[in-house]
Amino acid sequence: MRTIRVVFLLVPKLHLLDLAxxxxxxxxxxxxxxxxxxxxxxxxxxxxxxxxxxIRARLDWPELGPGDLIVVPGWRxxxxxxxxxxxxxxxxxxxxxxxxxxxxASVCSGADALGAAGLLDGxxxxxxxxxxxxxxxRYPGGSMIRDVLYVEDDRVIxxxxxxxxxxxxxxxxxxxxxxxxxxxxxxEMVVYARRNGDELQDSVMLRHRxxxxxxxxxxxxxxxxxxxxxxxxxxxxxxxxVSERTLTRLFTTATGLTPLRYQQLLRVERAEHLIGHGTTxxxxxxxxGFEDARxxxxxxxxxxx
Length: 305
Fold this sequence. Notes:
Layout lengths: L3 E7 L5 H16 L4 E7 L3 E3 L5 E3 L12 E4 L15 H12 L3 E5 L3 H6 L7 E2 L6 H7 L4 E2 L5 E4 L2 E4 L4 H14 L1 H10 L15 H4 L6 H12 L7 H8 L3 H12 L3 H18 L4 H7 L5 H12 L1
Parallel strand pairs: 1-2, 1-5, 5-6, 6-10, 7-8
Antiparallel strand pairs: 3-4, 9-10
Helix pairs in contact: 1-5, 5-6, 6-8, 8-11, 9-10, 11-12, 12-13
């Protein structure tokens, strides 16, 4: 498993939670062995945050590859500055990293930096609700998506205000390391995982974790970890210590899905990720636990319909 390098680009007056939330997600994921390496760079050695806490940063950038990520936390709003607080060299670095196959992400007003680098043109994006009108007017070449937590479009991932950076980071962990990894991180951080809006970029696991049923969470933990295995309802019920009927009733009430349907959605989501990275449908189907590609094709067509 290749280590994913995550570089946080720090700008003056950044919001602490814009930085700390995603940083906590990636460092916690690394503590669990999922392979993340974080670093913090800026155009000055010391950055003053919006909350008055100074942060030390490095001036040199680590070497980044196609699978790595640059995150731009937001800075003090509610209005955008006349010019984003990043220089021409940093804008070029953002462009070059994305052009080389890397991903770039922003939290809140950090989308202004991505726009200044030309990375919002022709793409969907979002930001804090106080800034949507200004950002939409500043970067009309892109399409502003309002009232959602985050949007992903061609390796450009933008999120809404402040705490939504946690949601964005959990989504990226789920995509790169799987639903189980994101679930472990969310539970460790005591995050009430939730999603809103009509965007489907959020992971299945997170989209159906917005409930308070401990039983359903425990069942989901099992399915998240073994979604590619053949899981019998009787075995799940025995592991949790309830009857099959009780498990199905409580799980469906909490998530809106049966355990089987939840497992199928996890499999399809992971298969879509593999297919998007060049895997054939047949190989993806086998990798996620289907005996052949027919069921995967059927479930994919149902999702589209």
